[in-house]
Amino acid sequence: MRKLTAWTTVALLGLLLAGPVWAVTLQEAKDQGLVGEQRDGYVGLVAGTAAAEVRDLVREVNEERRRRYEQIARDNGITMEQVAAVAWERAVQATRAGHYVQDENGRWVRK
After folding, report:
1. Which of 44, 69, 74, 92 could form a disulfide with 38 if both were Cys (CB 3.0 to 4.6 A apart)?
2. Residue ranges of the chain with per-residue pLDDT less than 70
3. What is the pTM assigned to this prediction?
4. Is residue 6 part of a domain?
5. Domain count, the chain
6. Any domain includes 97
7. Which of 31, 35, 41 is nearest to 96 (CA)?
8. What per-residue confidence (pLDDT) applies to 12?
């Protein structure tokens, strides 16, 4: 019985830590040109409209980023805006060719 309880605990922790499972992943949404990296360090809908599952994905990704930015800002004594600015620069560098990013004027452009 003790092994079953330990196994159940490990399985439940795995489910909790894995996060939500989406029909569309962030990478797939980017590949399809639905989602891009915004200047504020978050992801956004390129066309402004999308299926509910894509909107939910964007919301969840941004909530997770906000939590991470808050933690980094707190740990380093800087603002969330400073963290987000650095995150955007890194996200743009890591963005694949053909994916969308916002330019300095907030327009969506393909990298």
Report:
1. 44
2. 1-22
3. 0.76
4. no
5. 1
6. yes
7. 31
8. 38
